[in-house]
Amino acid sequence: MSVSLERLARNQALFREVNERLLELSDGFQDGSMQFVCECSNEDCTETVTMNHQAYESVRAHSTFFVIVSGHEILQVEKVIDSRDGWTIVQKVTESDYAVETDPRRRNGA
Ligand SMILES: [Zn+2]
Predict the structure, then answer these.
(1) What digits encode the pLDDT tens for the residues 61-100?
(2) Ligand 1 centre from 110 Cα, in Å?
(3) The dihedral sign for the CA sequence 65, 66, 68, 74
(4) What is the pTM of this model?
(5) What CA–CA distance (Å, rounded) separates 6 from 94?
(6) 87 C-alpha vs ligand 1 centroid, how far in Å?
């Protein structure tokens, strides 16, 4: 395991950034749900999760929460908060300061 915790945190922050952009560019939740990229620590992960707006917002309401495909959690760096319909909400337990600093919503003052 040569991958640093910081590296893992950076990957997650990047995926979160992608999802926020997806949300921005989409027409919103037309059918009640949207597809997002998995926000796990694996930079090569290309899987997606489908969530409704309310569920996604419940993740973004916390700077240290991320949504990932169920089973992609790495329990050394995060703990499971909620799990359903193929996705899992995790909370960062390492590098959580970094997760807060890179929160796009916090940065935009939204
Ligand atoms: Zn993943």
Answers:
(1) 999 999 999 999 999 999 999 999 999 999 999 999 999 9
(2) 27
(3) negative
(4) 0.91
(5) 9
(6) 10
Token pair belonging to 60? 């973004």
Q: What single DSSP character describes residue 62?
A: S
**Using CA atoms, how far apart are residues 12 and 104, in angstroms rounded to an integer?**
12
Q: Rounded CA gap, 39 and 11, in Å? A: 8
**DSSP 8-state symbol, 20:** H
Question: Which of 110, 61, 58 minimizes the C-alpha distance to 88?
Answer: 58
Ligand 1 centroid to Cα of residue 67, in Å, is 9
Distance CA 98, CA 31 (A): 34
CA-to-CA distance for 105 and 71, rounded, in angstroms?
27
d(Cα 66, Cα 76) in Å, to the nearest integer?
Answer: 15
| CA Rg value for the chain | 13
Residue 18: both structure tokens together: 């992608």
Residues 6 or more apart whose Cβ sits within 8 Å of residue 44: none
